[in-house]
Structures are given as C-alpha cells and as structure tokens.
Amino acid sequence: MVLIYQDEAQNVYSPSGTVAWDADVEDWDDKVELFGSPEYMQLCQVWEYGATVAPNEATSVCKPSTRDMPDGWTWDDLVRGPTEAQCLAVYNSAKGGAGVDDPTGVVLLGVDASGSMDLETLGDGFADFKDHLTDIGVEWEQVLYSNERWVKLTTDNYVDVAGGVTPAEVEISLDGLYNGSDCDICEDLVGDFTLNSPIQLTDEGGRFTADGWYPISWGTGSTNVARTADVPSGTTHACVWKYEADEHCSWTESVENSMGGFTTLTYRFDWWGYLLARFRISSSEYKWRLIVLYELRFECNDGFGGVIDRVNSGWYWEHDVTSPDCILTGDESWDAIFPEDLPLLEVTCDDPHEAEFTDFCNYTLTLTDVETVVD
After folding, report:
1. Cβ burial 244-265 (10 Å sphere, 16+ → b, else e)
2. CB neighbours (10 Å) of residue 193?
C-alpha cells in the first residue's frame, strides 16, 4: 500500500504544473510496470492551514487542475490534527472498506514535511494509528517528504513497498574456464567483479525489439555488443547493471590455398565486459540474465583483399522468477546459454574457411554466485 499525506502542491503541480506532473506520472507508471503495482494507492489530502471547508478531488491543489489522479490511485481528505479513528477511516477507504483485507506488503506512509505541513500537523492521532498498524501485524515505513513533488518522491521510495530493492551493486563470481592454447583473454573472464549504477529502461522506441537495445557504444565502429538475441521475447522494462572491460586477443594462421599461394587467417576475441539485466515480461514473469559482451571475429586475407565474419550475441546465464522482488541471494540456479549451437564463422577469400566458437576458446565457464549488495 502507498498512502500519501499532502496538504498542497502549489507552484509545483498546482494549478498548471503539467510538465512536472506528466513526467513524474510516467516515471511512476514505469516503476510499477517493472516491480508490480501496490495493492492500494491513495493520496490523502490534508486540509490546508486555516481551512474551514473540506477539499475535494476535482479542485485539489495537490495536482494540476487539468489532470486526474494517476491510474489506480484513489483520493480522500483528512483534517489537521486528526484522531486515530479518522486516520483509520482514511486507511480503510484506501483499501476499499473496513472489511477488505489488510495489505500484505509494506505500507509506505509518505508525509509532506516541506514547510506547509509537517509530521506534527498529524499529531498524536497519527502516531496512535501507526501503533494500531503494528498491533494488527501490518508492516509500515514512514518517509518524510522534503518537497511537494509527491508523485516523484513516492516513485523514488516505491521499491520498499514492492518488497524488494533495486540494488546499487551486484557481486558476481565466475569459475571453471579452460583456455584454448591461443586465447589468454579468457582468463580475464573468470573471477569476482562488481556491477553497479543500475539504469531502468522501457521499450520506448522499440528498444527491446531492435539491435542495440542498451544505450552504449562499446565495441568497434557501429558494432552493438548487446543485441536482440540477448533480450527475452515480450520484454517491456529492464533494470541493467554494467561492468566495463576492454580486452582482446588475436592470433593468425597461414594456410596454403588452391592458387598455390598462402592465405592468412586471423582469429580475434574482443571482450567489453558484462551486463546484468532484470527483464520484466509480465506481472508474474521476470528473467535475470548475465550477458557476456564480446565479439568473435574471423578474417581471411589473400593479399588482394579480406573478408570478415563475426558473432557477438547470445552468450549469457539466465534465471527465471515470478516475483517482482528485485533481489538475488546467491542460491539461484542459472542456466547457461551459448551462441546457437556454437555457430560457424565462415569467410571466403580464394577458398572457403570456417571457425567454430571453440576455435577461439575451449572453455567450460560456470557461474557460481550472484549476490546483490544494497547501500
């Protein structure tokens, strides 16, 4: 449940702050798409100081005059200095009546404390109401809002209501790699590292259905290292953490060709790091993927020209969940996904040549642990 106590938002949302309102409501919608919606959401408008007439939703000074409440939100009012019973009545109206089940998750109590009101405005009756929630086994968290932009502040604090958190860092452990004789880069793929700075993405502009869904330019030229093959079908939202690297190895092989000369074959393995992405497909279907950002490049050169083939998608570990909770414990079971049946790379100079994934690195790479770290 989200229950917000606000007396006014003038000069922020009201009467004509539609730009800030629309942006904040869009961010809120994206958040609930990613984590799932609270069971109940309500703005409780506290009477303004000195008011003798109750406010009403249509003319509320907590929103722009031309906008309705965000989808799924209800509205109620509360006098200043309320009794416990009055606070309880608002709580019951938020969940649809006294006989309706109490929320199962954390109740976020967002209280305007920006100057026009503060926690003392709600007084002892509100304190007694919170004690009542504790007594009936309802978990709650109170957040004092430092300004009147209550939609944005609610969005920023919503992760606690969702029953999880968006971790600031994620620690990864990899184990069990066996190198090919020429591929020392693979040694850097093993070990412990940390991904950080999560970014929340939506499918705006078809981001998840087109190559280059992640807004980075790692790699050479216009190469995109996270491509459509790394995104589950149906994805609408994602949280993404990244680990950047810039390593590569290459080696050459000279082979006699059908013209009686020699063709130079060049093998190259580029590694740019990892992405950990938590994809939302539906309210009950989520996928975690740890994606290897890499490119295999196979090139032939016969002295007159060269041809290149490359592959850079479809190497990741995957873990399915049904809960919106954004937490990893390290006990999950991850499935390894490799490029489609170790695809061949094929080039033709004067003769055709082929190379498999295992020609670049003979490996058995195992994901042993993924654990979130929350600041």
Report:
1. ebebebeeeeeeebeeeeebeb
2. 16
pLDDT tens, 218-227? 444 444 445 6
Domain spans of the chain, in order of start? 2-161, 169-373
pLDDT at 259 over 80: yes
Read off the pLDDT of residues 192-213 as tens digits, 9 standing for 90 and up: 999 988 887 777 777 787 765 6
Cα(371)–Cα(356) distance, rounded to whole angstroms?
33
What residue type is assigned to position 127 of the chain? A
Q: Are 24 and 151 in contact (CB under 8 A)?
A: yes
Q: Is 370 left (phi over 0), alpha (psi -120 to 50) or beta?
A: beta
Least confident of 10-19, 176-185, 308-317: 176-185
Q: CA dist 168 to 105, 141, 197, 286, Å?
A: 22, 20, 6, 19
The tokens 């965000």 sit on which residue?
Answer: 70
3-state helix/strand/coil string of the chain: CEEEEECCCECCCECCCHHHHHHHHHHHHHHHHHHCCCCCEEEEEECCCCCCCCCCCCCCCCCCCCCCCCCCCEEEEECCCCCHHHHHHHHHHHCCCCCCCCCCCCEEEEEECCCCCCHHHHHHHHHHHHHHHHHCCCCEEEEEECCCCHHHHHHHHHHHHCCCCCCCEEEEEEECCCCCCCCHHHHHHCEEEEEEEEEEEECHHHHHHCCCCCCCCCCCCCCCCCCHHHCCCCCCEEEEEEEEEEEEEEEEEEEECCCCCEEEEEEEEEEEEEEEEEEEEECCEEEEEEEEEEEEEEEEECCCCEEEEEECCCCEEEEEECCCCCCCCCCCCCEEECCCCCCCEEEECCCEEEECHHHHCCCCCEEEEEEEECC
Closest by CA to 319, choosing from 311, 331, 301, is 331
Average pLDDT over residues 134-156: 93
Closest CA to 76 of 30, 31, 42: 42
Residue 312, token pair as written in the block: 């850079």
Burial bucket for residue 367 (CB in 10 Å: 0-12, 13-18, 19+): buried
Average pLDDT over residues 159-177: 78
User: In the numeric block, which tokens belong to residue 171?
Assistant: 């620690």
